[in-house]
Every structure is written in C-alpha cells, then in structure tokens.
Design a protein that fits this description.
Layout: H1 2-35, E1 51-52, E2 62-65, E3 68-73, E4 79-83, E5 88-100, E6 108-115, E7 121-129, E8 136-147, E9 152-158, E10 168-172, E11 176-178, E12 188-194, H2 203-208, H3 219-224, E13 229-235, H4 241-250, H5 254-257, H6 273-279, E14 283-288, E15 301-304, H7 309-322, E16 328-334, H8 345-351, H9 365-369, H10 377-407, E17 414-420, H11 441-444, E18 445-451, E19 459-466, H12 470-479, H13 492-496, H14 501-505, E20 508-512, E21 517-522, E22 525-529, E23 549-553, H15 570-587, E24 599-600, H16 603-615
Parallel strand pairs: 2-24, 12-16, 12-17, 13-19, 14-15, 14-16
Antiparallel strand pairs: 1-11, 2-3, 3-10, 4-9, 5-8, 5-10, 5-11, 6-7, 6-9, 13-18, 17-18, 20-21, 21-22, 22-23
Length: 620
C-alpha cells in the first residue's frame, strides 16, 4: 500500500513538473511574441537589390543639371573609381553630361575601364567630342559587364587642354549595374510629406480621440491607416519647411544640421535616407516645390513641380512605371494644404454640403491677420472650412497613386510613410493662421502613418516620436540596426517591439529663432523656453510672443492655454535644464565640418528657391 502511494506520488510530482515546464515554455513563447517585432516589421536587411551602385559618394561634389544630380568630373578630380566587392555580371549604365563654355579648347573625352584583381585592364567604352562652345553634350552608355570580385571600374574624363579648367562643366550620373537577383526583390520606399498638414484635421486622428467626424476630410488616408501604424504623438523639429525636412531626412535637430530657417541651404550634410537607399541600389527621386531646393544628398533626380499636386503625382506614377523592376525610393512633398487655401469649388460643395446657403469664395488670411479684413468667429470658421477643403482635395489625389501601386503589384512590397513637415495654427494662438514661428502643438504636432510591406491591421502608438526617428527606422528595416549614437533619433521598430522605456524617458525638442527659443516634450508635459525674451516675428512681420517659460499639461490642456510655469514640478525642472543645454550648445561656435557632399546650386536655382518662398508668403 505504501509502495503504491509512493508510486502515485511520484507520478503526480512528475506530471506537475511537466505541467510547469510546459507552462514555462508557453510563457516564454508568449513573452517573445509580445516583445518581438510584428512579422510585417521584421526588416529585410539580407535582401540584395538587383541593381548595384557605388557607395560612399558623399565625399564627392555634385551639381544639378536638368533635374538630375551629376557627380562632377574636372581636372582636379577627373575620375570615379568603383570597386566591386563580389562577382557580378550584368548591364552597366551611366550618362555623361558636359557643357563647354566660351573659349578655345581642344577635344575632351569620357571613358570607362575595368581593371581585374590581377591587374589586367580592358576598356568598356570611350568617346571624344570636339569643341562646340555653349552646346551641351548629353550621352548615355549601356554596356554588358562581367567582372570578378576585387575588380574596379574607372570612369574618367579626359579634359580639354586649356589654361582655364573652368571652361568645361562636366559630370556623370551615378553609375548603375543591373545584375538580376536570385532571391526576392527588396521592398520599395515611398515617403509623402504634406506641407502644413495639421494632425487633428484627419478623420483617423479624430476617431481615435473619441470624436469621429460626420464627414471625414481625409477618407483616403483613413482607409490607408487601416493597415498602417498610426503614431498619435509625432512632432516636427521646426514649424518651417526647410529645417523640418532637413531633420526628417538626416535625423538631426536644426541646431546640428544648420538649417534653422528657410533659405538656408544644407552644407556637407552627410548621410541621408536617400544616400542609404541609393547605396543599396535604389532609384532615388524627389518631387515637389517648397524645400526641394535643399541640398539633401542621395537623390539622383530632383524635379521642381510648382503648385499642382495632381501633376506632381502623375509625374511620379510615370517614373515608377518607367523604372520597371528596379527598387525605388521616391519622396514627394505636396503643397495643397499650404496657405493661401484654394481648394477647387467642387470640393467645397462636398465639404459644405450641410450649408445650403454656402457661397464659395477665397478668403485673404494675410489681410485678416493684418487687420485689413474682418476676422470674427464666422470668418475664422470660414478659413478653417477652406483649409478642410484643401485637405479633402489633397487626400483625394492620393487615391490614384495608391491604386496605381496596387494595380502594378507593388503595394504589398512598398513601405509607405505619410507625414507633414509641420502643422498649422489655424488661429489657436496670437491671432495667427499659419505656422512659423509657433511652437504650439497646432504647428508642431504632425500626422505620422507608416504602412510596412505586407502589413495587415492597424497598430496605434501613443509614445512621443519625432521626424528624427524616421531615418534610423528606415536603416533598421532596410539595412540593419544603426549603431548607437549615429542619429539623433531612435528606430521606431524598437517601439513596435514594445521596447518603450527609452522612448518614454527621452526629451524631444523643437525650435525657432535660430535655436534660441526651444520647446521640449516629455510624456504629457511640454515646455516652451525663451530665456532671452525674444519676440519672434511671423513672415508678415507681426509679433508672435512666447513667454520666457511656458509649461503645459497636454492631457488636461491640449490647446495650451493654461501656463503652469509657476508650479514646482520635477518635469518642469528637468525640461528647463534640457532646453538650457540645447540652447547653450546651439549657440556655441560650430566646429568646422569636414568637407564632403557639397552640392552646388547655380544662381538661377537660388532665384527659383526665392521665387517659391515668395509665392508662399515667406519673403517679400
């Protein structure tokens, strides 16, 4: 009897151990699932592009010609040497562009040569042109190439014989070698930034806040968000386009990249989203007007398309069709929501459908802010309605582009990011409709929607994030985790993997007035710090005052109307210390940056940039 009981006891104990072991395994599996990336955000750093391009070109000089960025070749730097790190066979493509300026000169030429690891060299092509002043040479070369690992391809200019080397302006497109691929093709990258798009005007954000609209002004983006990650608390780094876009593409604050206001061009910017993608073999293209003149490196083509987002998107669809199987990174900056707000009349008939007496007319917001036109509650509401119409129209244009990607079978294989450079005040503070120099959340808080390849279902993220997080996220997904400290931002893939602690502990910044007035956000709290008592001015020249210290609880006071600066709060103390450090470091003499990545702009291109800014009301 005793032996029987002992045997039963051992069996029960063994069963208990098995149950505990199974529970432990299940617990570990469940923990791993809850702390690992969703399948759609696992990344694809191991995928190889069917197109190779030389990397590390940021140390070279580029210039813009006919919408293409050309790598400069001259008597001081007449060649580009491309070292091949693996055996390849495919078709080499490069285009040569040159303009011989007035003045006598001998012939000039361009050639490409392959040198194998054993030192044996062979010419791929060679071409010579006779002097023809002021006539442009523009020729494409396509040749089959088969090389072993360790080979090098040299592209060389034979400059004219002359005492003045500046008589020839010559360059080449970034060479590409189409080699095919045995594995799955890498996903594409598509970023759409919408100028002056305020986050809380989108239907999806209104619905997630508990206030779904009767008529959404963003039905296409609402639909897009159904299979995307929606970031509830994303912010820009500056309420001006050029600084904000620089931060988005470089993962650096304006105080670091140096573009602290519009009309300031990037100098030696280094690595960007476009350089990362170009070095991985992607075709890189930027389209837009405002901000496209920035020297953001890595784009092989940039085309300025003035007001006309419909034409811009149509051009982009044509370029995607022409790129065939090559993976692409396209960035489009849409301008339809920027002031002044001029949506088509048919749009306003939809937006104002509940007002049978509505009569469409344009409203001069500049005159209203100058006191030269009525600006009561009815007029303010009318402007906001026009802004809503501008959003509705911009949103409607996205449908054809999204549908085109789907019809081509590219939708599931494309990572799509939709955001804004900044928001819009819309008369929330200081009787101001527009954005710069406001540091309130109407101008700083932006939509951020990210659809990963093959994503199914919506994911909502509440933690504070910033434009500076976009580049490290893209590197993490396409090329592997960035090394610590490389960027100002952090990879949002970690946030998707529920590694929230670092995101919740960090302070995010935004700034105006050349880094002398700074906003900082930590959790639900926000500080605006203006220690010098500067009174910023709007592009109209009117004051936009912000106090020395403004502290807000964004949950209790989302409109930022109750200043809590006089309370003793640990977050206030920390943010004061952090913003003081930011301002102090920003105003310190800047270290001379190493040369690299210079992009030359002609006087005509600078005038074009000024004309765009003038048309948008930034300069007179």
């Amino acid at each position: 009897m005793t032996a029987h009981r002992s045997t039963v006891g051992r069996k029960i104990a063994l069963a208990g151990i098995i149950v505990l072991a199974v529970a432990a395994v299940l617990s570990a599996v469940l923990w791993h699932r809850s702390h690992s990336l969703p399948s759609y955000a696992q990344g694809e750093s191991s995928r190889v592009s069917p197109v190779l391009k030389p990397s590390g070109l940021e140390v070279r000089d580029f210039f813009l010609a006919g919408g293409r960025y050309l790598l400069r070749l001259d008597s001081e730097s007449p060649s580009l040497l491309w070292k091949i790190d693996r055996p390849v066979a495919g078709e080499l493509e490069v285009a040569f562009h040159a303009v011989l300026k007035a003045g006598a000169a001998t012939a000039f030429g361009f050639s490409a040569t392959v040198t194998e690891g054993n030192g044996r060299a062979r010419e791929l092509f060679s071409k010579e042109w006779r002097p023809s002043p002021e006539e442009a040479v523009d020729q494409k070369f396509k040749v089959p190439v088969s090389v072993a690992k360790g080979a090098a391809i040299e592209f060389r200019l034979a400059p004219p014989t002359t005492d003045d080397p500046s008589v020839l302006d010559a360059g080449i497109t970034i060479p590409r070698l189409a080699v095919g691929a045995s594995g799955p093709k890498p996903s594409n990258l598509f970023i759409i930034s919408i100028d002056a798009l305020r986050r809380d005007t989108l239907g999806i954000y209104q619905a997630l806040s508990g206030h779904p609209p009767a008529l959404s002004l963003s039905p296409e983006l609402d639909k897009f968000s159904e299979d995307a990650v929606v970031f509830l608390n994303a912010r820009t780094t500056q309420p001006s386009t050029w600084p904000a876009l620089s931060s988005l593409h470089l993962s650096a604050y304006p105080a670091v990249h140096g573009v602290t206001e519009n009309r300031t061009f990037l100098e030696a910017p280094g690595r960007s989203i476009a350089t990362l993608m170009r070095d991985r073999g992607y075709a890189t293209l930027a389209l837009g007007s405002n901000g496209i003149n920035l020297n953001i490196p890595g784009f092989e083509e940039k085309h300025i398309i003035y007001r006309g987002d419909d034409r811009l998107l149509a051009y982009g669809r044509n370029r995607i069709a022409a790129q065939a199987a090559a993976p692409f990174f396209h960035w489009y900056h849409l301008i339809g929501c920027h002031d002044q707000y001029f949506p088509p009349e048919w749009v306003m008939k939809i937006v104002a459908r509940d007002d049978p007496g509505y009569v469409y007319k344009r409203i001069p917001t500049n005159d209203m802010m100058r006191g030269e036109a009525p600006c009561g509650p009815e007029e303010v509401a009318a402007v906001r309605r026009l802004y809503g119409g501008a959003l509705f129209y911009t949103d409607s244009l996205l449908k054809e582009t999204f549908d085109d990607l789907k019809s081509r079978g590219l939708w599931d294989d494309t990572l799509v990011i939709v955001t804004a450079d900044h928001g819009e005040e819309l008369y929330d503070h200081n009787r101001f409709f527009h954005h710069s120099p406001s540091l309130y959340d109407g101008a700083l808080r932006v939509p951020l929607l990210i659809k990963f390849p093959h994503q199914r279902g919506r994911r909502v993220i509440a933690e504070n994030v910033s434009h500076i997080d976009i580049l490290p996220t893209i590197q993490h997904y396409f090329a592997g985790r960035p090394e610590p400290g490389r960027y100002a931002g952090m990879s949002l893939l970690d946030l998707l993997a529920r590694k929230r602690r670092a995101f919740r502990k960090r302070v995010l910044f935004a700034e105006v007035e050349r880094s002398r007035v700074v906003a900082a956000v930590l959790g639900n709290y926000k500080l605006i710090h203006n220690p010098a008592g500067i009174i910023p001015r709007t592009p109209l020249g009117h004051p936009f005052p912000m106090g020395p210290v403004e502290f807000y609880d964004l949950v209790k006071d989302p409109k930022e109307t109750v200043n809590l600066a006089k309370i003793d709060h640990p977050v206030l103390r920390r943010l004061l210390a952090e913003t003081s450090r930011y301002i102090r470091e920003a105003q310190a003499p800047r270290l001379k940056r190493a040369k690299g990545g210079d992009i030359e702009l002609t006087e005509q291109e600078r005038r074009e940039a000024d004309e765009i800014l003038r048309s948008l009301g930034y300069i007179k």
